[in-house]
């Protein structure tokens, strides 16, 4: 298991940018695929982006393609989500999560075994 802590959320205007970070503990961080999910008030938690253990493949929800970029630095046990051209619809609590690579769907929250506490992102209009 790996412990995850998100940071970097905040309040930005429409069109602005934020970079979220997710720091993991443990020497086996690089053995996990990593994902970002988000949950707005009254809504279900939804998939945002994912990345394989070595960073060679990425996956994105249609709603964020071309605007968000997921990356990772295994030497620092950290995964990032660069968010550009932010919209009010992006307002949510953002969670990072870990899964065993090649096990289950990258798009499904049910495939992830460890979750961070979340960080709030608010985009004002």
What does it look like?
By secondary structure, the protein is mainly beta. It is 0% helix and 49% strand. The chain has no helices and eleven strands. The strands form two sheets. Strands 2, 4, 5, 6, 9, 10 and 11 form a seven-stranded mixed beta sheet that branches. A four-stranded antiparallel beta sheet has the order 1-3-8-7, with no helix packed on it. It is globular, with a radius of gyration of 13 Å. The N and C termini lie far apart (39 Å). The mean pLDDT is 95.
In short:
Helix content is 0%, strand content 49%. With 125 residues, it is mostly beta strands.
Overview features:
11 strands, 49% strand, seven-stranded mixed sheet, single chain, mainly beta
Structural class: mainly beta
Radius of gyration, Cα only, in angstroms? Answer: 13 Å
Give the amount of beta strand, in percent.
Answer: over 45%
Largest sheet, strands/sense/barrel: 7 strands, mixed
What gross morphology would you assign? globular
Calculate the mean pLDDT score and round it: 95
E-strand count = 11
Helix content: under 10%
- Number of helices, where a helix is a run of at least 4 consecutive DSSP H or I residues: 0
N-to-C SSE series?
EEEEEEEEEEE
Q: Uncertain segments of ≥5 residues (pLDDT<50)?
A: none
| Gap between N and C termini | 39 Å
